[in-house]
Amino acid sequence: MPTAAPAKPKPETWLDLLARERAPAPETASLLTREEVIDQLQAQGIDVNKVALVYWEKSGILPRAVRRWRDGAPRALYPAWALPVISTVRGLQGTSSLTELAPKIRELASAHARGAINWADPLMVPIARAHLALNDLARAYGVGDWDAGGEIAGVRVQFFDGSGNDLPGARHEFFILPEESPLSGN
After folding, report:
1. pLDDT higher than 80, residue 135
2. Which pTM value belongs to this model?
3. 57, 88, 123, 130: which has the fewest C-beta neighbours closer than 10 Å?
4. Closest to 183 measured CA to CA, from 96, 92, 103
5. What is the DSSP string of 47-66?
6. Residues 26 and 82 placed together within one structural domain of the fold
7. How far is the C-alpha of 99 from the C-alpha of 18, rounded, in Å?
8. Would you state the pLDDT for residue 104?
9. Is residue 168 part of a domain?
10. What is the number of other CB atoms lying within 10 angstroms of the CB of residue 68?
11. Is the pLDDT of residue 183 over 70?
12. CB 86 within 8 A of CB 41
C-alpha cells in the first residue's frame, strides 16, 4: 500500500518569526496592509507589486503576511520593518538567485526581529545588501560562506578618491565572529 506524502510544513509568517526570536509582536493596528507596503515602497522609488510579494512569500524568500480582519475585510498585514527587508529583496533581484539568498534574507528579517538591526540607520540597507554580496564573493574565491566559518574571518570595505586617498568615514568592517557580526545583535 503506498504511503501518503509527508505534509508540507506550514509556511512561516512574520509573527512566527517574531515568536521564534522571542520578540514582541506589534499591535495589529500598527501593521501595514499589503497595499500600504506597496504604496510606501513605490513612494521610495522601489518597484514592488502584489504579484512579486506573493511570489516571494510562496517561494519562502520572505515570511508570509499575517491574515487579519481590518476595515471590514481580511487583509495581508506586515510589520513596518518588513519594508527594508522587501526593499533588500528587490535590490538583490538579478544579482543572484533569490532562492539561494532566501536563508540570508530571512536571517536579516530575524536579526531585525531580535532588535539587532536598526533599519532607521540610513546605512543599514546598503550594509545588509553588502553582507549578502560578500558571501557570494567569498564563494567565488572558493572559501565557502564567509559568515559560516570559511577561511575568511572578516571583510573590510574602504573607499578611495580618484587620487587613491582614503575617504574618511567611508569604511565598514564585517566580521564572522558571533560577538562582532553586524547581524549578531551583540
Report:
1. no
2. 0.64
3. 123
4. 103
5. ---HHHHHHHHHTTSSPBPE
6. yes
7. 22
8. 74
9. yes
10. 13
11. no
12. yes
> 10 Å Cβ neighbour count for 33?
17
pLDDT-above-90 percentage for the chain = 17
Question: Do both 82 and 34 map to the same domain?
Answer: yes
Q: Tell the residue number behind the cell numbers 515568536, with chain if given.
A: 19
Q: How far is CA 72 from CA 37, 64, 68, 130, 134, in A?
A: 19, 21, 10, 42, 45
Q: How far apart are alpha carbons 80 and 36 in whole angstroms?
A: 10
Q: Which domain holds residue 129?
A: 121-186
In a domain, 106, yes or no: no
Residues facing residue 32 across a β-bridge? 78
CB atoms within 10 A of CB 44: 10
Determine the residue type at 95. T
Q: Shortest CA distance to 105 belongs to which of 121, 84, 120, 119?
A: 84
Residues whose CB is less than 8 angstroms from the CB of residue 122 and which lie 6 or more positions away in sequence, other chains included: none
Residues 63 and 134 placed together within one structural domain of the fold:
no
Is residue 87 domain-shared with residue 126, that is, in the same domain?
no
CA distance 176 to 153: 6
